[in-house]
Design a protein that fits this description.
The complex is a heterodimer.
Chain A: E1 8-9, E2 14-18, E3 23-29, E4 32-37, E5 41-44, E6 51-54, E7 61-66, E8 71-75, E9 79-83, E10 89-94, E11 102-106, E12 109-114, E13 117-121, E14 127-131, E15 138-141, E16 148-159, E17 168-181, E18 187-192, E19 196-201, E20 206-210, E21 220-222, E22 228-231, E23 237-241, E24 254-256, E25 263-268, E26 274-279, E27 284-288, E28 294-298, E29 305-310, E30 316-321, E31 325-330
Parallel strand pairs in A: 1-28
Antiparallel strand pairs in A: 2-31, 3-4, 4-5, 5-6, 7-8, 8-9, 9-10, 11-12, 12-13, 13-14, 15-16, 16-17, 17-18, 18-19, 19-20, 21-22, 22-23, 23-24, 25-26, 26-27, 27-28, 29-30, 30-31
Chain B: E1 10-17, H1 23-32, E2 39-43, E3 55-58, E4 63-65, E5 74-76, H2 77-86, E6 95-99, H3 107-115, H4 117-122, E7 123-133, H5 137-143, H6 145-153, E8 156-160, H7 167-180, E9 185-188, E10 248-256, H8 261-275, E11 279-287, E12 293-300, E13 303-311, E14 319-327, H9 331-339
Classes of the chains: A mainly beta, B alpha/beta.
Amino acid sequence: MTEAQATSSLAQHVRLLEAGAEVVAAAFVGEAPALALADGAVLVGEPDEQKHVLSHPDASILTAISDGRTLLTGGDDGRVAAIGADAVAHTIADEKGRWIDALALRGGSYAWSAGKQVRARDENGTVRTWSAPTTARGLVFQPKGYRLAVTHYNGVSLWFPKVEGPPQTLEWKGAHLDATFSPDGRFLVSSMQENALHGWRLADSRNMRMTGYPGKTRSMSWSHDGAWLATSGAEAAIVWPFKDKDGPMGKAPRECGVREARVTKVAFHPRALVVAIGYADGLLLLCRLADAAEILVRAPGGGPVRALGWDAAGARLIFGLESGEAGFLNLPG
Amino acid sequence: MTQSHEPDKVPVTVLTGYLGAGKTTLLNRILSEPHGKRYAVVVNEFGEIGIDNELVIGADEEVFEMNNGCICCTVRGDLIRIIEGLMKRKGRFDAIIVETTGLADPAPVAQTFFVDEDVQKAARLDAVVTVADAKWLAARLRDAPEAKSQIAFADVIIINKTDLVTPGELREVEARIRAINPYASLHRANKCDVKIADVLERRAFDLDRILDIEPDFLVAEDHDHEHGHDRGHDHHHHGLKHYHDEDMQSVAVRLEGEVDPAKFMPWINRVTQEQGPNILRCKGIVAMKDDPKRFVFQGVHMMLDGDSQREWKPDEKRESKVVFIGRNLEGEDIRQGFLACAA
């Protein structure tokens, strides 16, 4: 389906907002929509009653993530801040001006990295430190247990912060960027500098190569049932099948929302097999995996879509662009 | 890598030079000038003493091999990450200066701009500027391969600490530099007292700016006047001694008339594939048969960037010239191969 053929549009259900700076992340914290901005601020609340939280004064937010309850921001001021639905920023860590390159969050546990130094803070507030062999680029907690995956050059290390001894390293040549675990914890997937994904089946460390991307993948999102992984980096959302015990090995991915613009951001709906896809030209659409049907959310223009976030029920979608434009979609009925 | 004139791309200047040559002195001189520009400075050691600038980013030089089938393809992973992060501050600074360590090879920095798509969108490599110690460079060229690479790679070379050598020693070190790299612009300095315009906004990697590739034998000695564009002279006219560096040379080939693109394209690809690991830089202006425009190219190791440029002027001689700077180049192979591309 091409844009000209797109029959349906949700654009009339979108409320637009000028966020004022590049949107680094968009998420719901509790019921409150939140936008983390490159100018160091976080906007929390409904469009008309947003609170402007300056979580990184005179600095930039480099990275931000949310688990649906807390928004964690990392700045080029070396600080990590946590913001809840109450719109109050709490400083979690201060690395004295060193850039916060990556964050992870699960339950009450936080992790962050600055250069090679990786720190994890458990629910009790105990902070432990590990030094990666090269700069840590991506962090993610394993779905179960207090274990952190850290991407770096030539592999991904799995670190148990509470256990002495060196982490297990899954080796694969090249620079690994972001990482994600499948919801059932069976697979770990990293994105790479070489325009590819690399995956491991954790039971036997078996390697999976997912190649063919024209650009770097910097956004990955799992379907609610854990059967699919949607990814950016091509002129369509590339959706890999992970249902079988071999994951995507020997299988072709689905392509959703094929257009002549690069996909920059993907976010699966939390309850349905529908993926929100943002493009480099500012277009945003929803694509149903079953039949590739598309519904337009935002027409092109204004530069790359940089942030997408669903609420827990899947009734609302918040998005943001590099240009500072943002919007809220309320799905009808 | 397309580096046509795109004003919204942030220029990146790379400062190299062997240990103690005066890179930090040059950096501070640039930063302290009343130019009204805001620089983001990337240095190796965080909190490096004596750099007075608002935006200083400390980095470990992380040289990554790319698994792309190109054996000499390395990039600076830290630089990719830093440029991505700096883009969050877009509009709040004007240019980036990257100071490398004294032992660094400039190639991975340059190749980062050829390889990484996000870096290309955000920034453009402006020039590689090498600071050389007038007193010690000759010795370093003998015992430190890094020092030689830094000279060979440079677009701009500053011979610093000239007050510590005699005029004869200075001529000697200049001749040594010219034996390796006759194309860089050369400036004599004490305490790196060069004009900012000689160092920044050079657009040395901009294809549109490749005007000619004649050796630059004239040294700017007097900072009050621009050095002449009296190029193409036989270097003996300037009293320079001629040296031949044993392992680093430049090979320049001129072809009177036009080139057949069906021969030239496979040839340039073959040369850069076969000799790429030894080629540090290459550049060319080529008159393609039946093409009213000049074809220009430049490269680093195995990476090439080429494009049609402006039209040949009516009074301009349609001739083709290529230049390679590298280590143990097979000069005769390059010469014969290029001449065989004649239309």
